[in-house]
Write a structure and sequence with these properties.
Layout (H helix, E strand, L loop, with lengths): L1 H26 L10 E7 L12 E7 L7 H16 L10 H15 L10 E11 L3 E11 L6 E10 L8 H5 L4 H16 L7 H4 L13 E4 L2 E6 L12 E6 L11 H4 L1
Parallel strand pairs: 2-3
Antiparallel strand pairs: 1-2, 3-4, 4-5, 6-7, 7-8
Length: about 260
């Protein structure tokens, strides 16, 4: 009987010893704090809510690049482009995003003395990584604004960076010198294909462009499967036609760039 009691006591002590070890292990475990890569700046007129449907507000959200050798250079370039984008009044050149938000609200407040309907204004700016390849990072800034008038306006701008150096890439960097004529032929052919048009269809009549032609734009994105060319409203067509998003696969550019592997990885 004594041996049984001794055995039970042994297992009880063993259980407590195991529990104590487990708790010690839990207490000393360190958890890595997660840091969001999305930053946000927001300000509304007199604290109004967007859900009210008649709120004037400034909203900016942007993604910080957190990897790559040249991330500091790239982030600085993005910050400069963003600050330029939200400074929509040249005579009110803000030094920070918060200053730009305050300027926007102050300008609206000042306009109320002249407006008859008091329509709400807004500016929303969203900036994100578009494509993150091994060698090239593509980033975009998408902005919509309304400060009175017949309709709001929206703009989408792409930026492409060499991840090793932070250099912003041009089409010449990607395609080489003398690419213009050959690229325009590809642009025209792929646009017609996207729209279901023949090689002889008039682009003014059938695609509602300003001219009977379409050429490349420097607003482009380097992506793993090809190049994206983006035309904002009024650039090649009226507002009613909307924006034009044209994707060109690398295979269609083989006659211009012999090896796209640096950009497609």
């Amino acid at each position: 009987m004594k041996s049984v009691k001794t055995l039970v006591l042994f297992f009880v002590l063993l259980a407590f010893a195991g529990t104590s070890y487990s708790q010690t292990g839990t207490d000393t475990t360190k958890t890595k704090k997660k840091v969001s890569s999305i930053k946000r700046v927001y300000k509304s007129y007199k604290g109004c809510k967007q859900s009210s449907g008649s709120c004037t507000y400034f909203e900016l959200s942007y993604q910080v690049v957190r990897s790559g050798k040249a991330k500091k250079i790239i982030n600085e370039a993005i910050q400069d482009s963003l600050l330029s984008a939200v400074n929509i009044w040249p005579d009110m050149n803000a030094a920070t995003f918060k200053d730009a938000a305050s300027n926007f609200i102050a300008e609206y407040d000042s306009s109320l003395a002249q407006q008859t309907n008091g329509a709400a204004w807004y500016i929303t700016t969203k900036a994100r990584v578009n494509s993150n390849g091994k060698n090239v990072l593509s980033y975009y800034i998408d902005q919509a604004t309304y400060t009175g008038g017949a309709h709001p306006n929206s703009y989408n701008t792409y930026y492409n960076f060499d991840k090793a150096t932070g250099k912003q890439l041009s089409l010449k960097d990607v395609l080489g010198a003398g690419f213009e004529t050959a690229l325009n032929k590809v642009i025209d052919a792929d646009f017609r294909k996207m729209k279901g048009l023949s090689a002889t269809d008039n682009l003014q009549d059938k695609a509602y462009l300003f001219e009977n032609k379409i050429t490349y734009t420097n607003n482009f994105a380097v992506e793993k499967k090809g190049l994206r060319f983006f035309y904002n409203s009024y650039e090649i067509a009226p507002y009613s036609t909307g924006q034009t998003d044209l994707f060109i696969p690398w295979s269609d550019l083989s006659g211009i760039i012999s090896d796209a592997s640096y950009y497609s990885k």
